[in-house]
Backbone:
């Protein structure tokens, strides 16, 4: 596996479910990100982890809970979501310092909340 | 407050002609700018970037121009090819901040 891999690619869940999105990078990067892409909106930064420490939480509701157990893996735990949370969730990774300028994205997890 | 704006949601260009995609930003702290390209069912992929110390960067058919006084950048693709049909995102950051801010995207369609 190379690059940034996201699973599952598609997820349908009810508002009372608990699910998780997974991201894995094979690039030796030390920073990982979660972005949300809703229809006709810019990509919105949700969370940034640098060296496994959360350095950015962009006013994201607590029903989204990130976890970064090591520099290669990033999770987004989902619980009691709302239909408006339906979107494409993109994971990305980058180096640090000057290497942080360019993000490598995964293909995304398309989430539908019923 | 949207700091990076792409005011054209779509653009249609004839194959072989020049495609020009535009982007405006409001934050004067931004000093590094990127263009990403996204195909359906794939994540965005990095295309080209420019630092604020430059006003032009060229890579093959792709050239990015930066006008700092107008807080405007543009991406030129020439000649345009059918494989260039995708959504193009402009992004900006303050280097070291690890926070890339994206525009809404412009859907480019290259017609044969």
Residues:
């Amino acid at each position: 596996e190379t690059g940034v891999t996201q699973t599952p690619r598609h997820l349908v869940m009810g508002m009372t479910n608990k699910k998780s999105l997974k991201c894995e990078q094979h690039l030796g990067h030390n920073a990982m990100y979660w972005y949300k892409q809703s229809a006709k909106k810019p990509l919105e930064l949700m969370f940034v982890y640098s060296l496994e420490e959360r350095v950015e939480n962009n006013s994201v509701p607590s029903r989204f809970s990130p976890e970064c157990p090591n520099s290669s893996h990033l999770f987004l735990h989902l619980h009691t979501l709302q239909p408006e949370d339906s979107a494409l969730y993109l994971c990305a990774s980058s180096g640090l310092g000057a290497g942080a300028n360019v993000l490598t994205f995964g293909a995304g997890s398309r989430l539908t909340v019923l | 407050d949207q700091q990076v704006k792409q005011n054209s949601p779509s653009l249609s260009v004839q194959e072989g002609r020049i495609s020009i995609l535009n982007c405006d930003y409001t934050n004067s702290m931004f000093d590094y700018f990127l263009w990403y390209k996204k195909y359906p069912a794939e994540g965005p992929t990095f295309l080209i970037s420019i630092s604020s110390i430059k006003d032009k960067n060229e890579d093959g058919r792709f050239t990015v121009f930066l006008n700092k006084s107008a807080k405007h950048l543009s991406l030129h693709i020439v000649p345009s090819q059918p494989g260039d049909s995708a959504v193009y995102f402009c992004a900006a950051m303050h280097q070291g901040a690890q926070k890339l801010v994206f525009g809404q995207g412009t859907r480019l369609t290259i017609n044969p």
Q: What stands out?
A: The mean pLDDT of chain A is 91.
